[in-house]
Amino acid sequence: MKQPSMQRPELVCPAGTPAALRTAVDAGADAVYCGFQNATNARNFPGLNFTPEEMKQGLAYAHERGAKVLLAANTFPPAGKFDLWKQAIDMAHGFGVDAIIVADIGVADYAHRTYPDQRLHLSVQAGASSPEAIKFYCRSFDIKRVVLPRILTVQEIKAVHNEIPCEIEAFIFGNIGMMAEGRCSLTNYATGISTNMDGVCSPAGDVHYDEDKDRNLTTRLGEFTIDCFSCGEKAGYPTICKGRYVTKDHKEPYYAFEEPISLNLTALLPELMKAGVTALKIEGRQRSKAYVEAVVSSFRETIDAYMNGEEPELNDLLALTEGNKQTEGAFKSKRWR
Amino acid sequence: MIPQLTMGPIQYHWPAPQWKDFYMRIADEAPVDVVYIGEVICSKRAPFYEPLYEEVADYLKKAGKKVIFSTLAEVMIKHDRKMVSGMTALEDVLVEANDTSALYYLSGKPHTIGPFMNVYNEETLTFLTLNGAEHACFPTELPEASLSVLSRRANHLGITTEVQVYGRIPLALSARCYHARAHGRVKDNCQFVCENDADGMELKTLKGQPFLSVNGIATMSHTCLNLAQEIETLTGMGITHYRLSPHSHDMVKVSKLFRDLLSNKADPASVTEELKKIRPDIPFSNGFFHRTRGYEWLQQRESA
């Protein structure tokens, strides 16, 4: 039986751009995660991500300051286009990244066979939500760490920890994915751009804001209305799983999946740390430098305080959440489901 | 190989007698070669059907159908995990893996890969074949170009391939039950409200436009996939199996229409006309195949 002692967790922070990487490292990140400027990573947005040269420089910056760099190559190559993912793995290994985050079985197999010494992490996009699934990946590709889907309670995470041979990374802040990651084609259904293959959810090019004469705002993704906001209401970015809909029994519009809200596990951190979680992850490679700075430094302070046996002053991160609403999501209770 | 027609697992929560009658009728009347059984969406539904598996499977086999057991698509809690370990431990039964937890048990044994598994490319397909897969049903969002590459690799590897050609498209899975949520409940006290909607609960946008359909933890398309027009291309690229996903309407008639199409006894346009008559309220889609928005329906021009 493993003792529920608190081990010092690694704080893993988003780096959508070279500037965000430097900001995160300076603000106290133990590791940053980033991707190349193409479909090989799950945040393939215009203006984000790294050229090979920037990746090299980012690595040097992080390593000089004792921080690790994790390369996300966590999308699913469509047949016939596998070479782009091979290149990403080859480059990442050549540059000396500390770990590569993979989701696709073919990509994991390629990385493992070609570079047996390269440390691999299993992306949340792989959707490994049970000990057996995780063990399959560990056995097949020598995965060293799994990023858990945001659907388990802390108790369940603890149980998983006791059954698997690898480390656990858990999300603590940012976007809360309502759909099982890596298994959602909703964006593709509405826009023709695939989250799994193209690395984009709710692409900006398909997002529309229509204002009527009374200044009511309708948000659309492609052809489909996602939400309506009366004048004065703050309109959210239209993602299908945070929209309002009606059904035959529900004539009043309701959030059929979830309301615009962000995950914030600040208060659950000690429990997570006792549950055997090795790394705590902040979501948001698409967010600004200011966001990264505020969130990373806040969690740095909080974690350090807990490690020193102090009761931290919990910073208010509400202003940085989606729709100014926060939740502990699935982590607190099964009733979230 | 003569193209094979398959009946996928029932995605919805039907009352057990309806569930059983469906398979009995498929056995007696539907010209399908393979039938999948097993609860793929929610482990809470499984106890209603599990007592019927053996009888239904035997009946289907006597009718000359090959029977394959499908595992749960999302595996998380103890009950889910037990379902997977139980099903994969059955002897003399071919199992379709819909999640990697099933592969944990099936590695090294002959098995098939279901459409919920992320088989997007030829390298993944090769790994899974070496791991014991002898057949794969590809994800519904794959476009023609990818299916063609995958099919070629499958032929090379000596495994058979399958594509869903009819029925609402599974688009997303979640830990949360959206059927329960619509009724102000949570998954643990859902009281099986998903049984009210034999083909899913339609979700409309605020403008009244039909968009999606909710099926417990699964979100499905509003439209009904129909690849009748694309079957010739699919057979041309070497896809061996064609999957119909069950609905509450006349699936025997649907399978007869697709059988006629596969044996060149009917053309896609007339088959589509007939399919429309069976279920006029659900529009067709084929966008994913054509690498465009999934809900779209691209009508092929009449060939001269």
From TrEMBL, chain B:
An annotated GO BP: ubiquinone biosynthetic process
One Pfam family recorded for the sequence: Peptidase_U32
InterPro entries: Peptidase_U32, RNA/ubiquinone_mod_enzymes, UbiV
Top-level taxon: Bacteria
UniProt xrefs under HAMAP family: UbiV
PANTHER family per UniProt: PEPTIDASE U32 FAMILY, UBIQUINONE BIOSYNTHESIS PROTEIN UBIV
Name of the protein described by the UniProt record: U32 family peptidase
